[in-house]
Specification:
Strand order of the largest sheet: 13-22-21-20-16-19
Radius of gyration: 30 Å
Low-confidence stretches: 99-142, 192-231
Mean pLDDT: 79
Oligomer: single chain
CATH architecture of the largest domain: 2-Layer Sandwich
Number of domains: 3
CATH superfamily of the largest domain: Chloramphenicol acetyltransferase-like domain
CATH topology of the largest domain: Chloramphenicol Acetyltransferase
């Protein structure tokens, strides 16, 4: 029996996701457990597996389309099922016959054409119908402007009225590329300096003072007077063009990072602790671990992760998060690791770090880094954890403070390992030091608990063999 495959809610509270691809072609049978669609969220790629054997009768959205959660994305049927009139079957299921995609990677067509006009039915999201967005004038009939939901949202975010945008989609419909072009034009226009003089005659200066304007004495004849001759206007425009900037539209991951960290600073009361550790033994241990030439090299970051997990075991009051009704305490230590990619920052979670060997930690972090850069992290790998670790030491950064990734309760910012003068037993000597900054959520964790954790953690860095126990 034919049925609709709908966009799943692959990430908590997600309203939309991108249909990245169709691993199974139309009219190709698949088995239960096969990946039949690939969905991209802000930070991960999720494989949608088939619940039972079947066949994809028709895909309803193209690869690259942004689709609302709950919206139909394909028509699937039982194995060997065939249908002569797919459009009629879709109509019975309440789905208008799909047209051609308006743009690669853009909006999938959602409004059917009725009597030569595009109508916008209320799409169903999570089983509930939304009221249609009002249409406004421009390119349609009777003073109406038709636009895709994505185009409306982009225009609203950019503060550009739809009436000022020319649609290039079917029947003059405004689509994503039209809004992006309008944003680019507005950005370019804002670069023309106010002092640029357009070509044409200059207005004659007023020589008679009025009651509302004070008299200004004219400069002496020998004083040079700045002028903007018409011949200089092209040069001024060329100079303005050379200072023009380019607006890069926000990516999904950049919007997610902005929203999440803004929420964190607005709702999470941060406090900070800073510490400095003598990292000489840490560096020697790392060198010994890598002397064997094993398949995975251990980094300083891997050792810091193990030390942080061990500190959580020794100070269990830090291994908590805040919830609306309780402070939730965990028996295992899950630590997020910040990884920079070309698409943005992601924080996959290492599970039960306290039970992992140092080589297992190194291998897991390397695997996360490779898959993060390829955009192949799973959504479940980005969820959970009580603490994150971010390291900018490889860039020479001495110390910095980071923003907590909610709902976690802490984040550790790790600086560079540096040679500096230190005092030991009252004597000055050269030493190897590392500075760290711990950002803490004050709701579930008091300052004394965080200070106790920092003391234990610094001691583990200075005696790293204990962190591997």
């Amino acid at each position: 029996m034919a049925r609709l495959l709908r966009m799943p809610e692959v990430a908590a509270n997600a309203a939309e996701a991108v249909l990245q691809g169709w691993p199974i072609a139309e009219n190709t049978p698949f088995a239960a457990g096969d990946v039949i669609a690939t969905v991209e969220t802000e930070k991960a790629v999720v494989d949608v597996e088939a619940e039972a054997d079947g066949v994809i009768l028709k895909t309803l959205v193209p690869a690259g389309a942004e689709v609302r959660v709950g919206a139909p994305i394909a028509l699937i049927g039982d194995p060997e099922e065939k249908t002569d009139d797919l459009d009629a079957l879709l109509a019975e299921l309440g789905v208008p016959a799909p047209g051609r995609p308006e743009e690669a990677g853009g909006d999938a067509p959602r409004e059917p054409v009725v009597n030569g006009r595009t109508e916008s039915p209320a799409p169903a999201v999570n089983g509930r119908a939304e009221s249609p967005a009002p249409s406004v004038a421009g390119g349609g009939s009777a003073g109406r402007v038709f636009s895709s939901p994505l185009a409306r949202r982009l225009a609203r975010t950019a503060g550009i009225p739809l009436q000022e945008i020319t649609g290039t989609g079917p029947n003059g419909r405004i689509i994503r590329r039209d809004v992006e072009s309008a944003i680019a034009r507005r950005g370019a226009a804002s670069q023309v300096p106010a002092s640029t003089v357009p070509p044409g005659p200059e207005p004659a200066p007023a020589s008679i003072p009025t009651a509302s304007a004070p008299t200004v004495s004219a400069p002496a004849a020998s004083t040079p007077v700045a002028s903007a001759p018409a011949a200089g206007a092209p040069a001024a425009r060329a100079a303005a063009a050379s200072r023009a900037f380019t607006d890069v539209p926000h990516s999904r991951i950049r919007r997610a990072i902005a929203a999440r960290l803004t929420e964190s600073k607005q709702t999470t009361p941060h406090f900070y602790l800073r510490g400095t550790a003598n990292a000489g033994k840490l560096m020697k241990l790392r060198a010994r671990l890598n002397d064997g030439g094993g398949p995975v090299r251990v980094s300083v970051n891997d050792l810091v992760i193990k030390a942080a997990a061990r500190a959580h075991v020794l100070v269990p009051a830090m291994n908590v998060i805040w919830t609306p009704d309780a402070v939730r305490s965990f028996s295992s230590v899950d630590v997020s690791v910040a990884i920079a990619t070309g698409r943005g920052l992601v924080t996959p979670v290492l599970r039960s770090v306290e039970g992992m060997t140092i080589s297992s930690v190194a291998a897991a972090v390397r695997d996360f880094a490779e898959r993060a850069k390829a955009g192949r992290l799973r959504q479940d790998e980005l969820e959970g954890g009580t603490m994150s670790l971010t390291n900018l030491g490889m860039f020479g950064t001495e110390d910095f403070a980071a923003i907590i990734n909610p709902p976690q309760s802490a984040i550790l910012a790790v600086g560079a390992v540096r040679e500096e003068p230190i005092v030991k037993n009252g004597r000055l000597k050269a030493g190897t030091v590392m500075r760290v900054t711990l950002s803490v959520d004050h709701r579930p964790i008091d300052g004394v608990v965080a200070a106790e954790w920092m003391k234990v953690f610094l001691a583990l860095l200075e005696n790293p063999v204990q962190a591997l126990a």
